[in-house]
Amino acid sequence: MYELFKNLGAWLTSGHQWSGYDGIAHRLAEHLQYSLLATLIAAAIGLPLGLLIGHTGRGAFVAINLASFGRALPTVGLVVLVFLASGLSMWPVYIALVALAVPSIVTNTYAGMTAVDPDVKDAARGQGMRWHQVLFQVELPLALPLIMTGLRLALIQVVATATIAAYVSFGGLGRYVFDGLAQRDLVQVMGGAVLVAAVAVVLDLTLSGIQRFLFRHRPA
Amino acid sequence: MTIDWSWIGDHTDDLTSLTVSHLQAALSAVFFGLLISLPLAVIAHRIRPLRGFLLGLSNILFTIPSIAIFVLLLPISGLTRTTTVIGLTVYTLVVLLRNTVEGLDSVPVKTKEAAKAMGTRPLRTLLTVELPLALPVIMAGVRIATVMSISLVSVATYIGDGGLGQLFTDGFQRDFPTPVIAGVVLTLLLAVVADALLVAVQYVLTPWTRRRA
Amino acid sequence: MALPMNRRALLGGLFAAASVPALAACSGGITSLDQGSGSTGGGSGSSKGGLTIGTANFTENQVLGYLYAAVLQEAGVKVKVRPNLGTREIVIPALKAGDIDLLPEYQGALLNYLAPKDNSSEPGTMQNALTLALPAGLQVLPYSQAADSDCFVVTRATARKYGLSTLADLAKQNGKLVIGAAPEVKKRRVGAVGLQEVYGVEFKEFKSLDSDGPLVKGALKKGDVDVANLFTTDTDIAANDWVVLADPKNLIPSQHIVPLIADRKADDTVRKALARLGNVLTTEQLTQLNSQVDNDKKDPEDVANAYAKEKGLTK
């Protein structure tokens, strides 16, 4: 065990390991690219959907069930299926990651919207606010904390799962995990795993920092 | 991408045994996850300083890619079902632990005090008052953990297990969509059925939540 | 979580207790050395309790695993096949640990894994070298006449463009070409390491793909890689008019198929059944069986059973 951690330390800190196309710097950049882009696309789909369902109160049953259905989708199967349909391309990776992230975003956005006090909404309407004003000036700001929680959860899942890109020939930190598995090089696997976890934690802390900054005027 | 129905017809036995093996792995993980989470949750609920530590730890475990956990277990438990179950169990902890702690938190202080006033011992209060009242929240966690485990089992195909996940690697290597589609559909079905059964179990286990209806 | 180790120790104990010869092999350690080289002397283990065949993560290895299963079942041995377990680097430790008992292997590749410095190239000397290099508890049975080597291929267009016909020609394009192969090939002698040592080849990039699977073949077709590591028993090489680069310095050793088995399971029943298969199966036939799985989408198990029946190996 001690040996493994000593080698892991050496692996993570050697300059040689950080440079080149298979270096940590390059793999880290790839991993961030896959994760952030997938989460952004998922947010572009999930946020409007969640807001719409939350605002109108229609389609909630369908959305919640679709979300739990989405949670059950096996990522490996989805990646392989899209790979067989599209060949060697980034499609399998992005489709699988987006499918993974959308449910958390939709359900949390919807939950945030339903948690808004109906009296507050009535009051806003009573003041003559139009539907979009109620949505964007009243409901959205009040629902934001839960929406942010959904985004953070989605991002963490996507970062951990973006490892799968390496299974279909691409890069990212998953390269170390899959190569390490094939070579039975546990130090490399552990290095990859530690880096993925570190990326997830750092991104989560960043988002929670942003969240705290946005709501700094609001009592906890 | 067409489905070769004759392949499915010829492989009903294989599909059945893979489905059973898939379910067995997922359910074992949830079982061991509960076995570990329940005592840890009680500790986290009672001893405040440990709460952040335990929940934080389970959160960090959740950020480790599942395949890496399976690979790192190879020197310990080899290419066995044990490796699959340990790896999946680690992932159930984040949901089960958090929900159990929240469930215990949701028990009204007055209820606990009433039990104490009646002279009920702490362990008995925990088993007969707190845990039953926390059950709805715990069961919500069990449902999420079960669906999540069912979806994750297939990752273990990279270490030669993985239940229905074996259909994914097989179809991938042969450029053959039929087994992959069958695997995805069966996984989803399994998740839906398991979730419905858990809802039924919860209904039976918590009669008091129905009284109002 | 010490459970698995206990369980494994317990299982090991049961196996050992099940047959006295197995105990002798364990304590002696040398008994197993006399076996492997093809002698069909007294059994050192017992297959009575049945055995588990493991296979690596590529088509041919699964076909071979199911062929072993077919002839062993015919001989009355209870068999379980675990397909698609992973690479040699993963499967051999599993064999040592007792998770599986028997593996279809390849002489040269196995020897390279066990003793990278060994230069044996004849099948006979290689068999002896293997017997010496194997860890205690494992042995190889007589090798088959069928063989399947690693090879490095380029497309016809790439061969023309860079004037490539042998592995040595690759060195003239150092730093320009991208090679695609399974991840483990990066660290193997029959792979990036040997190409560098023997031929002085330096690639621009090593792309981690799969073992003669859809990734490496897809990448070669698409032009994502210039050089691909494939197996000589793949009909796609001829079908796509790919050029196999010659190996004048014999980097790639003879690769006859050889059963690798745990001593505790190696008895005369197993030996005889696998030797019979090894004598019947030819490289051409194996190539055809692979194609039936990869191109006709037949199950490796069905393909293996049909072949065994056709050749009179099973009824």
What's the short story on this structure?
Chain A has 220 residues and is mostly helical.
Shape of chain C: globular
Q: In the CATH classification, which architecture of the largest domain in chain C applies?
A: 3-Layer(aba) Sandwich
DSSP, total strands of chain C: 10
> Order of strands in the sheet with the most strands of chain C?
7-6-8-5-9
Task: Write structural notes for this entry.
The complex is a heterotrimer of chains A (220), B (213) and C (315). Chain A has 220 residues and is mainly α. Chain A has a single domain (2-214), classed as MetI-like fold (Orthogonal Bundle), CATH 1.10.3720. Helix content of chain A is 80%, strand content 0%. Chain A has helices at 2-13, 15-18, 24-56, 60-72, 75-86, 91-114, 118-126, 131-161, 174-183, 186-214. Chain A starts with a helix and ends in a 6-residue tail after the last helix. The relative contact order of chain A is 0.14. Chain B is mostly helical. In chain B, 81% of the residues lie in helices and 0% in strands. Chain B is built from 9 helices and no strands. Chain B is elongated. In chain B, 52% of the residues are buried. By secondary structure, chain C is α/β, with parallel strands linked by helices. Helix content of chain C is 47%, strand content 13%. Chain C has helices spanning 3-18, 20-28, 31-35, 59-74, 88-97, 107-114, 123-133, 156-162, 167-170, 189-199, 214-222, 235-239, 268-280, 283-294, 300-310, and strands at 51-54, 79-82, 102-106, 138-140, 150-154, 178-181, 205-208, 227-231, 243-244, 257-262. In chain C, helix 10 links the parallel strand 6 (178-181) and strand 7 (205-208). Chain A binds chain B through residues 68-69, 71-78, 80-81, 83-85, 156, 159-161, 163, 167, 174, 177-178, 180-181, 184, 186, 189-190, 192-193, 196-197, 200-201, and chain B through 1, 60, 62-69, 71-72, 74-75, 144, 147-148, 150-155, 157-159, 164-165, 167-169, 171-172, 175-177, 180-181, 183-184, 187-188, 190-192, 195.
List the helices and strands and how they pair.
The complex is a heterotrimer of chains A (220), B (213) and C (315).
Chain A: H1 2-13, H2 15-18, H3 24-56, H4 60-72, H5 75-86, H6 91-114, H7 118-126, H8 131-161, H9 174-183, H10 186-214
Helix pairs in contact in A: 1-10, 3-6, 3-8, 4-6, 5-6, 6-8, 7-8, 8-10, 9-10
Chain B: H1 5-10, H2 12-46, H3 48-63, H4 66-77, H5 81-105, H6 109-117, H7 122-152, H8 165-174, H9 177-205
Helix pairs in contact in B: 2-3, 2-5, 2-7, 2-9, 3-5, 4-5, 5-7, 6-7, 7-9, 8-9
Chain C: H1 3-18, H2 20-28, H3 31-35, E1 51-54, H4 59-74, E2 79-82, H5 88-97, E3 102-106, H6 107-114, H7 123-133, E4 138-140, E5 150-154, H8 156-162, H9 167-170, E6 178-181, H10 189-199, E7 205-208, H11 214-222, E8 227-231, H12 235-239, E9 243-244, E10 257-262, H13 268-280, H14 283-294, H15 300-310
Parallel strand pairs in C: 1-2, 6-7, 6-8
Antiparallel strand pairs in C: 3-10, 4-10, 5-8, 5-9
